[in-house]
Amino acid sequence: MLARVPLDPGQLASKVCFTVASPLVRTVYRSRSTLHPGNIEELDRIFRTAVFNNRRRRLTGCLAHPDGHFVQVIEGEVEHVDALMDSLNADKRHTDITVLGRWPTSSRIFSNWAMARPNIRPLAEQSLRLINDVGSGAQITGILLGLVEEGTSLYPLI
Ligand SMILES: Cc1cc2nc3c(=O)[nH]c(=O)nc-3n(C[C@H](O)[C@H](O)[C@H](O)COP(=O)(O)O)c2cc1C
Hints:
- By secondary structure, the chain is an alpha+beta fold.
- It contains 5 helices and 4 strands.
- Flavin mononucleotide binds at residues 46, 49-50, 53-54, 63, 70, 72, 84, 87-88, 91, 93-94, 115.
């Protein structure tokens, strides 16, 4: 004869609960920095906040700050990316945000980086122009990915 063993609430929860991951998106923007060019402390503060917050929200990406601009690639679950874009739009440390692309994606390309910080100094003039001025979201993402893969970045996502 089979005994009827009631499930405890924990067991029950593990049987009926499952998580449906939200869709992933990748977005790229360019903005104009309002920081004084030598304000390294503020840049460091931005990266510390970004890495701390992004780890908790499973956001990944890359942020470069060439020549009076910021360019950032952000990837993650759609509601986290959109919430961050709202914060970024309200952040007075930059202005004139131009979104260059926003795509659904099935995988991350900066998956090891809570916010990679590439060194843009080695870039050729032409690449810098793409980043600062005329490049599309896809071109900028490609250039930043190349730099990160060369290993010139900090802040690995552990
Ligand atoms: C160029 C730039 C990039 C930023 N990138 C991020 C980021 O990737 N993640 C993040 O949480 N905050 C980022 N921030 C900071 C946000 O605008 C905002 O200040 C911060 O998310 C608020 O965090 P808090 O609620 O923990 O104070 C960035 C700010 C700037 C100016």
